[in-house]
Amino acid sequence: MRTRDRIRLKRFLRHAEGYLDLGLPQQALDALLRLGDLAKSDPQALYLLGEAYRALERYPEAVPPLETAVQAGLREVPVWLALGWCYKRTARLDRAVQTMEQALILEPHAALLHYNLACYLSLAGKKDRALEHLSRALELDAQYRHLVDSESDFDPIRSDPEFQALTKAVA
C-alpha cells in the first residue's frame, strides 16, 4: 500500500471510530464508504464498517465485512461479539453459536463470550449447554448476574429449576 493511501486510511479510520464513539453510525459509514477499496483491504476498516451497519440495525449488511475481518485475522472479542449479534438478528442462530464457540477457543476466559453463548444456546433450546456457559460467565464475572433478570434470551429456560438455582446461587 502506498504511503499516501496508508495515511488516508488511518485518517478515515480515526474519523469512523470517533463517529461511532459519538453514536453517529451513519457518519461513520459515510466516512468508511468514501475509502472505497481501501476499506475492503483492511481488517480494522471492515470491522468498523460492520459496526456501523450493526449500529444502524442493518444486520444483513454488517455480516459480510465482519466475516471478512475475522477471516483476515482480526480475532478480538468485540469483533466476535458483533458478528454473533448480527447472526442472531438475521435468524442464523446456529452461526451465532458457532461464532461464540470459535471465539472461546481463542479467549476462554472472556465472561462476555460465555454469557452471549449462553443466551444463544438458550434460544436454540440447548438448556444444559446454556446453563454450563452461563455458570462459567458468572464464575468469571459475577456482575453478569445483574443482567440475567432482564435478558429475554433466557426466557426459554427461565422457569427451569436448574436455571433458577444457578441464578439465585450467585445473587
Count of helical regions: 11
Radius of gyration from the alpha-carbon trace, in angstroms: 18 Å
Quaternary assembly? single chain
Structural class: mainly alpha
Question: Can you give me a brief rundown of this structure?
Answer:
74% of the residues lie in helices and 0% in strands. It is mainly α.
Topology:
Layout: H1 3-21, H2 25-34, H3 37-40, H4 43-55, H5 59-71, H6 77-89, H7 93-106, H8 111-123, H9 127-140, H10 145-148, H11 161-169
Helix pairs in contact: 1-2, 1-4, 2-4, 4-5, 4-6, 5-6, 6-7, 6-8, 7-8, 8-9
Give a structural overview.
This protein is mostly helical and 171 residues long. It has 11 helices and no strands. It has helices at 3-21, 25-34, 37-40, 43-55, 59-71, 77-89, 93-106, 111-123, 127-140, 145-148, 161-169. α7 packs antiparallel against α8 (111-123) and α8 runs antiparallel to α9.
